[in-house]
Task: inverse folding
């Protein structure tokens, strides 16, 4: 019985692009890359900014948004529970842990202004534009002495 194991794609030019450190690091485990984690689209609208973050596999209870000093921080965590250890993984691509992203939205934005909705693994955040109100000139009376 043969077992299929995914192979790393190698191009024709790999022999010419060898890194001298490859031999040193070949015995080390590869870092766990998560290229699809928290993919974000940011769109400016007439009313403000729309932020859409993909969070597949996360539950709403494990997603949080916090505003501090004009920086919106979105964090999410997930864990794998009740796992059976009946075999050895040859490749594991499911994420377990926490991640976060930060966005500067402006120091004049308040928590009450921001609206967020989590649906089907997608977090949608609406941040309104703050329109500066023109300051009305106050009439001040100057006291004249004498």
Result:
């Amino acid at each position: 019985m043969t077992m299929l194991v995914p192979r790393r794609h190698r191009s024709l030019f790999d022999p010419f692009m060898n890194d001298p450190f490859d031999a040193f690091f070949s015995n080390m485990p590869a870092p766990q890359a998560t290229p699809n984690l928290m993919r974000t689209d940011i769109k400016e609208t007439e009313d403000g900014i729309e932020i859409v973050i993909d969070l597949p596999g996360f539950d709403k209870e494990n997603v949080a948004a916090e505003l501090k000093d004009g920086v919106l921080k979105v964090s999410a965590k997930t864990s794998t529970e009740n796992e059976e250890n009946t075999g050895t993984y040859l490749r594991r691509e499911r994420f377990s842990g926490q991640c976060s992203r930060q966005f500067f939205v402006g120091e004049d934005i308040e928590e009450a202004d921001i609206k967020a909705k989590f649906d089907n693994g997608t977090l949608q955040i609406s941040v309104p534009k703050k329109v500066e109100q023109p300051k009305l000139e106050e009439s001040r009376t100057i006291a004249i002495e004498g």
Observations:
- The chain has a mean pLDDT of 76.
- The longest strand covers residues 71-78.
